[in-house]
Amino acid sequence: MEAMTRYLLAQNISVVRFEFPYMAQRRLDAVRRPPNKTQVLLDTWRNVYQQVRAQIDEPIVLAGKSMGGRMASMLADELQVPALVCLGYPFYPARKPEKPRIEHLLALQTPALIVQGERDALGSREVVQEYQLSSAIVFEWMTMADHDLKPLKRSGSTQEIYLQQAAATIAAFIRRQL
Prior knowledge:
By secondary structure, the chain is α/β, with parallel strands linked by helices. It has six helices and four strands. α1 packs across α6 (159-177) and α3 packs across α4 (67-79).
């Protein structure tokens, strides 16, 4: 996310980053722990949104990587934001496509961009294309890339190039929505 932040700033897209409580604690004690309960994650997102909203009048676009994007997608309609961006969306638990977590994406009203690696273990193109998701969602598929948008060497690309491309795509998407 540090690299993506740099690339988005280079595209003149302002970014506010935050950590969920479990990640902040991990940074302090280096103990790997499971994510907080969904309600804690959603409340954390709501609190950050309210803090930013209190400081600026401009439109706020929710965005997140993996679970952060999933939580943002669960709040986008509620918060009535103009757009949503998800990087490496976790459509299903690792290698368990038979257990999709997409209920809220079926009726999503907020325009959304999902930047996804074609071979993401949490949402491969082959599986995700079969879902009947909301028409408000558009995809940017990264060829031969994984959950972190890192491509296979034989793709001829690099993670850095893909992150730069993703940032340009995100910036263009946001500008269209605003």
